[in-house]
Each structure stands twice: as structure tokens, then as C-alpha cells.
Amino acid sequence: MKKIAYFSPLNPIRSGISDYSEDLLPELAKTYEIEVYVENGFQPQNTQLSEKCVIRNYAEFSRRFAEKQYSAILYHMGNNYSAHQKIYEFILKYPGIVVLHDYSLHHFFAAKTLEKGDLQAYRDEMLYCHGQEALNEVNRFLSGEIPPIWEGDSISFPLNLRILDHSTGIIVHSNFAKNLLQKQASYVPINVVPIPAPYISKFEDLEIEKENARVELGIDQNDFVISALGYANPTKRIDKIIEAVALIKAKRSISNLKFYIVGEISPNYPIKELIKKYKVTDEVVCTGYVDLKVFDKYIAASDICINLRYPTQGENSASLLKIMGHGKPVITTNIGSFKEFPDNLVFKVGFGASEVNEIIEAILKIIGMDRKGLSSEILDFVMQFNSMNVCAEKYISTLNLLTLQQCNIMLGLNSYLSKFITEVSQKEYYMVSEMLIEKTIGTVSRVFRK
Hints:
The chain has 19 helices and 13 strands. By secondary structure, it is an alpha/beta fold. It has a 7-stranded parallel beta sheet, sandwiched between helices. Strands 10-9-8-11-12-13 form a 6-stranded parallel beta sheet, with helices on both faces.
């Protein structure tokens, strides 16, 4: 059985990627011997993982890598700096296959540089990834002409090139992300593995699951329940949903309407103030953070779920597949990877001036449909394209193709140039700084890519 080194955040680190890995690992462990690497001294919350995989500390990796223990290294990379800081360092030192959960990593690098007061490191990363145009944007941001780049235009400046240059291959979860990456780095092998639905209901069980969930959560069986699930920040457009709920209430379009905001709310997102402003305190319920089991109960208890996202970081939504796995109709933003889901199963709204009205129209459209038939079609789709078995098989086929062999031609170039930096900087008669050498080589690399 082939052995894989696996790097990912795990619970209790609060991250969708932690949940994702804990669902995926048992499936991959059926085919591979997996050694999961974690921060020294870290104890995974899920004690069952150690029954399927070997848990090792970061300090053990270099020796085992040198001993050629692994047929592949699999890294999971996302935008959360605290959760992925060490993983990023390993990617640069030990190239492997990177699962890029967010196309844009601008938030990661903003936290890595600007939040630590290192403006020059931010400039250097922008220059490396995007050239002079990016430095011009940095200057505009610093002069107050534009908002922070990671808030307004991170898709144009995703700051992911260093990872692309140091990966043997990339796995993404959508063709949207794959197409963007291929324009940046056609020299990197890129495969699409869809987000899995970790649980898929049986159609005949939907009604009893809904009834039982409502009993456990104290939700009236006669309420019409709309839910938005996951960490609530401005990109999730919860304020627009609250406004839509207020208009539905005013027009009395839906009886016994309840809107549940399930999950932690960002401290800078004035949701409770908005609830009071729009006078929907009886209709809107904020649950706060809930664990995964309760999270799933709220999905099961819902009639419709709403999963909006704007602006996008090119990310994918694990919660969307959880929702679909319960056969629930879901409303999303017509953007990025969400566009790839069939319009007759996932209902799309815009993010412009008509957003609130479009949300209302989508809710009323779903109410007027044969919702049992719709749920059946949603479950069939998820079973065909997003089951854990399907996703695990695609991982296996990708890992068989992208081994530790250097499929990415930039790895060879980077190795050669690194040796060049070392040799040149050690010769005293070269009166040039290492930083200048690296910037010159960065320019050569960009020309090479083109």
C-alpha cells in the first residue's frame, strides 16, 4: 500500500477545511497508508482519526522525507493564515500536491505581511506574483484611493503564484478555479476534484429527518424555515437576506416565516442592529456557533437554505454540498464556482441593485414548485457527482498521476536559481545583495512563464 504525507488543519481548529479533511481521510485510508502531520503537540479533536491514519508532528517530517517514505505529499491550503501558516512553509520547502481551497490567497498574505507591519514583504509578494501593475495598486491602496485589495479585487491579484511555482500539481474544486489558474501557470498540472457531500439523505427519509430535527431544535413544525449557515461576515450577504425577510413580512407573502442565521457572526458585522432596524426580531433567530451535528440538524429542519457569496475569493462552499446532501433547495449568488451547478437545482441571484428583489423572487419561485420532486432531483445529482466515493476516486486517480516526480517545470528552474543565489552571494567580488539577486531572478522567471 502506498504511503502519503498529509498536511491539513484539523478540529478543534475552526475551519471548513478541518471538517473536509476529517470526512475525506477515512475514504483515502481505504487505498493509502496515510500519515497526517500536525503542529508539534497538537491533539486532534476527532480521536477516531488515529484508527485510520498515523498522526505525526511536523518535527518528524524532514527525516521521513529524506528516507523517501512517501509516494506523494498532499497539502491543503486555504486563506486562514493561522490555520495554514506552517503548511505554507512546508509547501515551499518540500513541493507536493496542493489542494487549493481558495483560488485567491490575498487574505492569507495580508495577514502574513501587513498585519505584522511588514509592508515591504507585501510589496515583494505582489511584485513576485503580479509585477509592476500590482505595485501600482499597492500605492493606490496606501494613498487611500481604493479599499484594501483583498476586499475589492482579490481575484485580479490572487497572490497564489509562489504556491503554483512550488507545487508538483494542484487540485481545485471547480472548473472556474482551474481555468483561472491555467491562465496564470499553464506549466502546472491542475485537476478538478469536486467538493463532496459527506452525508446524502435517502429521499424517503427527508420528512422524518425534518420533523425529528425540529423537535430537537425546538422549531415549530408549522414554521416556514429559511436558513443561512456558516460563519457570517459581509461576504455572505446576510444583511440582504434580512432586508428580503422584512419585505416578505410586510407583504405577508409567507405565513409563519422564520430565518435562522446558523453560526458565529463576525464582530464587525452589525446583524443584530439590522434585525432591529428592519423590525424582524420575531422572524430572525441567531444561533451563534454550533457544532457539526447541530449544524446538520438545522439544514434538515429547513425548507430553503440561502448560501450567498460576494465578493468571491474563488472559493467553494462545503456548506452548499451539505445542504444539497439533505435534498434542500438552495439559493446562491450567480458567481464563480456556484455558476457550475444546474440552474434548475441551485437557484442563482445577482449581486447588484436588484439583489434583494431577486432573493424574494427565488424564495417564492421555490415555494411554488413541486418541492418533493425538486428534492429528489437534488439528491440524484449529488449522488452522481458529489458523493464521497466519487470524490475519493478522483483523488486517487489524481494522486496516481501526480507523484513526487517534478511534473512542474518551474520546480527545476527554481532549484537551479536557488543554487545560483547561494553560489553568487558567497562570492565577495559580487557586490550585490541577495535581495537584488532574487528580484532579478523573479523577473527572469516571469519572462520564462510567458
